Amino acid sequence: MMKIKPCFEYISHSLCARSGRAAAASVSFRCARTCYHRDVAARGKFITFEGLDGSGKSTQVEKLARALRARGVSVVVTREPGGTSAGERIREVLLHSATSGLSPLTEMALMFAARAQHIHEVILPALAEGRIVLCDRFTDSTEAYQGAGRKLGSKPVLELHAVLCGNLQPDLTILLDNDVAVSVERARRRNRTRRNGRSEKNTGKDENRFEQENRAFFGRVRQAYLAIAAREPGRVQLVNARGTPRETHALIMELVRKKLKL
Ligand SMILES: Nc1ncnc2c1ncn2[C@@H]1O[C@H](COP(=O)(O)OP(=O)(O)OP(=O)(O)O)[C@@H](O)[C@H]1O
Ligand SMILES: [Mg+2]
């Protein structure tokens, strides 16, 4: 496997030591220390899915992967928290309903620990091979859930993203938007079905910790997502997820077709 190391050089060096590129005046402090990530990421495409619990992310990731593969595109499907063996163990700690007393800061730190490994082990190597990476949740989730839901604010999330994730930015983020009550109820129904072992997708795992949050929490999460979309319209595409899975898939295909020039 190709060995990829993120570049964490600071702009105080006028040249990035790893890429040898000049830190141009227009390049921000953050970009200058992450130029290697950008070079690597330029080869494939990184598409993330965001939205509330039950908004349909996993359903739509699967549909898009199937559609792209049918067109001969090489696709990697992955998810957060998780995506690596260390990350999946962290996922269990984070999402299991038996996990209690975790401070919001600990929760954020664990999310980023899993993410840093995920980027290193899965995302960057796949992008370097020119593949399309479809990732179910990424840093916008941390900004929405820990930043807004847990009230830690966006600033620490974005700062940790710069330090621990080399500020890696998706080429496209699909934000599935639906009303809080509808999304959360769908997630609860799905979890109940899984608990009862009636679902084909029953993983046997408990991932219900966030299910216990109240409506105000999910309201803050949704508002934060909408604020991210307004802040970064070039990256984040808001998709109305109130239709059938097929209708939502058609909207997503249109966006992806444009982005990938299919
Ligand atoms: N457009 C839709 N209309 C009705 N039901 C849907 C739709 N999309 C997905 N569902 C169903 O809603 C439930 C939640 O969908 P899914 O698991 O894809 O959401 P998610 O965003 O991945 O949730 P989580 O964040 O909890 O993983 C599933 O049972 C799924 O089959
Ligand atoms: Mg899901």
Structure at a glance:
By secondary structure, the protein is of the alpha/beta class. It is 50% helix and 11% strand.
Question: Explain this structure to me?
Answer:
The protein has 262 residues and is α/β, with parallel strands linked by helices. It folds into 2 domains: 9-40, no CATH class; 43-260, P-loop containing nucleotide triphosphate hydrolases (Rossmann fold). Helix content is 50%, strand content 11%. The protein is built from 10 helices and 5 strands; from the N terminus they run ααβαβααβααβααβα. The chain has a 5-stranded parallel beta sheet, sandwiched between helices. α5 (104-128) packs across α7. The radius of gyration is 18 Å and the shape is globular. It starts with 28 loop residues before the first helix and ends with a helix. Residues 57-58, 136 line the site of magnesium ion. Magnesium ion binds at residues 57-58, 136.
List the helices and strands and how they pair.
Layout: H1 29-32, H2 35-41, E1 45-51, H3 57-70, E2 75-79, H4 85-95, H5 104-128, E3 132-136, H6 139-149, H7 154-164, E4 172-177, H8 180-195, H9 215-231, E5 236-240, H10 245-260
Parallel strand pairs: 1-3, 1-4, 2-3, 4-5
The structure holds adenosine-5'-triphosphate (ATP) and magnesium ion.
